[in-house]
Design goal:
Fumarase C, Chain A, domain 2; 18 helices; Ribonucleotide Reductase Protein R1, domain 1; two-stranded antiparallel sheet
């Protein structure tokens, strides 16, 4: 369930009222430019700016008859303005209004998402600093590999968030483009200076060239960027879900007083927010695919893209805003259990030090193949019998002929794996 208090601003951006307000902005800014060109009398512009208005209900009422949203909107606005409404939409086509206003809405929504990402970054860095030396098991293929620190995991996520910030900045620049170029993009009935003025007033750039529409590769890039960000969040939350499993329990979502995990099992504490974010990432990827399908339109345009964009763009921006909001809260309140991290590292009886033993034997003069054979022989025995790997090495005459007991024991030191952690942190100024 989406918390009611988390989304009021994104809901406002995609409201019918804000959409029509952006349409009206485009029309009024066009009239301003036409006034400067001597096409709209000053008194008419004054009347338009003072009286131009609409109501969503009235637009809907007219559209029920016209079956055309822009005409319904213009008819409603004309009812407020009167005779001077003849200057509204002069030389424009519907998509001049629709696409330019949509770009302004997407810019607003994208800036909200960018602010969420910028809010997430310091949360991850704070956790990275806090757990810089909190040693834990690194896993590959879901199997114990070698030790890392939980702080390094957080630093990795912060670095990926940096890239997502850069991606979102690029996507915002790509989508912040409008067009007021007429029916097929030739400016036959409208001066390009009008386009420049409208876009400048809306904080957009004019498209260098367009057809009847702004080209949909821009929208596909915007939706694809959000899908990538969602995929990053899925990656992070999948890790949390994995580490929260009962047998591991190295981290856990905060479980509030009064919260319930299961209708049947009172003991349950489930990673529900992480699972929710994982599922919503799939929605973002699906919407990105649809946006790519919208790139190929017939000739100078068709409207096969229009109906789906009314769903996928508001839905994707709203979903990602919510996902980021919930993930930030999750990371601020994440329960972390260093004692379980240590316990889990010890369950394989020292097998995590196998590479260090291997490299030491090679440095002693063995071929890598022979050293690997000796280490693996003892490692597989440890897996099979659950005997301690370190003890098995002490009992292996071939190993002890090369390494002294003290040398063997010295290889089983967790701090060895933290030796270069500070070098990584320095790359982030930490």
């Amino acid at each position: 369930m989406i918390d009611r208090y988390t989304l009021p601003e994104m809901k406002r951006i995609w409201s019918q009222d804000n959409k029509y307000r952006k349409w009206l902005d485009v029309e009024i800014y066009a009239c301003e430019a036409m006034n400067e060109l001597g096409l709209v009398p000053p008194e008419a512009l004054k009347n338009i700016k003072e009286k131009a208005s609409f109501t969503v209900d009235r637009v809907d009422e007219i559209e029920a008859v016209t079956n055309h949203d822009v005409i319904a909107f213009l008819t409603c606005v004309a009812e407020y303005i009167g005779e001077d409404s003849k200057y509204i939409h002069m030389g424009l086509t519907s998509s001049d209004v629709l696409d330019t206003a949509l770009a302004a809405q997407m810019k607003e929504a994208g800036e909200m998402i960018l602010n969420r990402l910028r809010e997430l970054r310091p949360v991850l860095l704070e956790r990275a600093v806090e757990h810089r030396n909190t040693i834990m098991m690194g896993r590959t293929h879901g199997v114990h590999a070698e030790p890392i620190t939980f702080g390094l995991k957080m630093l990795l996520w912060a670095s990926e968030t940096d890239r997502n910030i850069e991606r979102m900045e690029r996507a915002l620049a790509s989508i912040s483009v409008g067009k007021i170029s007429g029916a097929v993009g030739t400016y036959a009935n409208i001066n390009p200076d009008i386009e420049a003025h409208v876009c400048q007033r809306l904080g957009l750039k004019p498209a260098a060239i367009s057809t009847q529409v702004v080209q949909r590769d821009r929208h596909a890039e915007f939706l694809s960027t959000m899908a990538i960000i969602g995929s990053s969040l899925e990656k992070f939350t999948t890790e949390i879900r994995s580490l929260q499993r009962t047998e591991i329990l190295e981290v856990e979502e905060y479980f509030a007083k009064g919260q319930k995990g299961s209708s049947a099992m009172p003991h349950k504490r489930n990673p529900i927010t992480a699972e929710r974010i994982t599922g919503m990432a799939r929605l973002l990827r699906g919407n990105a695919l649809v946006a790519m399908e919208n790139v190929a339109l017939w000739n100078e345009r068709d409207i096969s893209h229009s109906s789906v964009e009314r769903v996928i763009i508001p839905d994707s921006t709203t979903a990602l805003d919510y996902m980021l909001y919930k993930f930030i809260a999750m990371m601020r309140n994440l329960l972390i259990y260093p004692e379980n991290m240590i316990k889990n590292m010890n369950i394989t009886g020292g097998l995590l030090f196998s590479q260090r033993v291997l490299l030491t034997l090679v440095n002693k003069g063995l071929s890598r193949e022979r050293a690997y054979e000796l280490v693996q022989r003892n490692a597989m025995e440890s897996w099979r019998t659950r005997n301690n790997f370190q003890d098995l090495l002490h009992q292996d005459a071939e190993v002890t002929s090369i390494l002294s007991p003290d040398e063997i024991d010295g290889l089983f030191d967790y701090s060895y794996h933290l030796g270069r952690v500070d070098e990584i942190y320095k790359r982030f100024g930490l």
